Task: structure prediction
Amino acid sequence: MSKFWNERVKKLEPYVPGEQPKDQKYIKLNTNENPYPPSPKVIEAIKAAANFKLKLYPDPNCDSLRRVVADYYNISEDEVFVGNGSDEVLAFSFMTFFDSKKTVFFADITYSFYKVYTNLLGLKCELIPLKDDFSIDVDGFLKENGGIIIPNPNAPTAKYIELNDIKRIIEYNFNSVVIVDEAYIDFGGESAVGLIKEYPNLLIVQTLSKSRSLAGLRVGFAMGDSKLIEGLLRVKNSINSYTLDRIALAGAEAAFKDKEYFQKTREKIIITRDRVTNELRKNGFKVIESKANFIFISHPKILAEHIFKELKKKGILVRYFNAERINNYLRVSIGNDEEMDKFVEKIKECVIE
Amino acid sequence: MSKFWNERVKKLEPYVPGEQPKDQKYIKLNTNENPYPPSPKVIEAIKAAANFKLKLYPDPNCDSLRRVVADYYNISEDEVFVGNGSDEVLAFSFMTFFDSKKTVFFADITYSFYKVYTNLLGLKCELIPLKDDFSIDVDGFLKENGGIIIPNPNAPTAKYIELNDIKRIIEYNFNSVVIVDEAYIDFGGESAVGLIKEYPNLLIVQTLSKSRSLAGLRVGFAMGDSKLIEGLLRVKNSINSYTLDRIALAGAEAAFKDKEYFQKTREKIIITRDRVTNELRKNGFKVIESKANFIFISHPKILAEHIFKELKKKGILVRYFNAERINNYLRVSIGNDEEMDKFVEKIKECVIE
Result:
């Protein structure tokens, strides 16, 4: 604490990301990274962009990348906003569309950064409890509010929300912005991006960190009606004109263009996920049906916290949240087959012992 | 305008960066970029970092880069904060140390982003007029306030403030944070970083965009008492845990380590600047004494706006600010010798015609 911090900063409870060990001794299944490297074309594009032009500012409007994303989703360039990871895009969205006079709604069990943003910005929020099976309570979102954020699939539960349910929420709340955080949508879900032309209050947020293996490059984006995007640009341009560097812009474009590599790697992850889900279930684990690149698991007899610690001793990092309703669950990112075989082997030891 | 923007966003007046033409037809002297490419060691480091590890998140604490900066300035790691360009670092500083109950002071003629931050955050500000010769009015800063920001050298005037004057301001205002924005300090000024151990209210902000030729990589940093740095980290971690990507971290480290290249290029710029200053003066221009990588110039007979437009027609971009007190000046970034010879040749034509 310091007398120089303002009152809000004194009260902040910043987000704590999953551990990033500096040595290589762990199998890292704790931060939902992709086990496969980025497309070789991304590496190539980055090397090509490492040239004298780094002395010049990047394009503050990121037109070229926005065009590539727009083409990919068959929308227009002014319906795309790009930023330094989806966390930044989400923070800017909270700053643009929500205000302290009205209440923002999100689930009680969800990505914990949402609460952090509301603290930073002095926003009121109401937590809408998930149902007992961790599915979203759609009816809970059908009442007066000042904005909604829903991740689909939800994190850390991995549970997918059907587009019809998303649609009910957007339609009812036509006066407030509904953000659908689709960080994990590419692992089996269907994006709501097809709805943005119909609903001017819908903002979709995605990232290149997960399905495009680029957590280390920091690129996220939002898609929605051009008026929503214009608002985000106003806020971005009031904080930092150039949030994406020349290298990130080049790498992100190449990632979007290599559709084949993207398809191949995400399919591999889906197959591995479903195989591991089955194996864990056979071994007595409860595994929530996942459409993400991670699974949310629990054991009827052995406490999650115990398994978490044992796995760490055995060289495997997973994520444990010491929070109400989910403190007997573990979130496990899907690694490659070799890593997951090791994981299954080790977790079986934890529940036998 | 959109009904979905909150009240503050509706009133924003975002920063407008200097034009970034997409073709190569201009000699670009409008955004204070460095005419020399980054160190070859930076390019090498970036290429080496373009590997499979991009699938993993970067170090959220940026420990390695912070250590390199700390070593360079002979301070400790926890006295360094790094971010996505100094604009982001400044925005985070405004969010951390200033609040809406007190008034922030800065000069009437200064980096125009400061006003943008205060609008975004709903802060009150008082503009302390520069003296007639554009030097800072130190006494104006010696009264009750809620924070101060001073660029040294000032922009767009290029005028340097002596450390003794900075010291008077820091000492008087021991209860509020004084930010010294040293974006241009490496071109002949003396950094105030040596004072941070003595003054816990002093925050220095610098960038790699100018003196290290890395505008395209987006890295800036702050230095100050560890409590100030801790506050910045709290805010950063409430917005985006990973503001610097793996590539930017690697490139920035390499830039700091290649001291020889840094010395050589900044000296070249200083020599070119002083030569051009003399030539312009010989041709009737008023040139404010500069310690930056740009000059602020005016002609007694020909209007700046006219010269600006003529230069553009002749293929040279400089910066013109249509703002009170400085609307008869041009800000001209220092290019390489060839570019500046061309500039001098062309601007001479503008004032003869």
The CA atoms of residues 215 and 346 of chain A lie 27 Å apart.
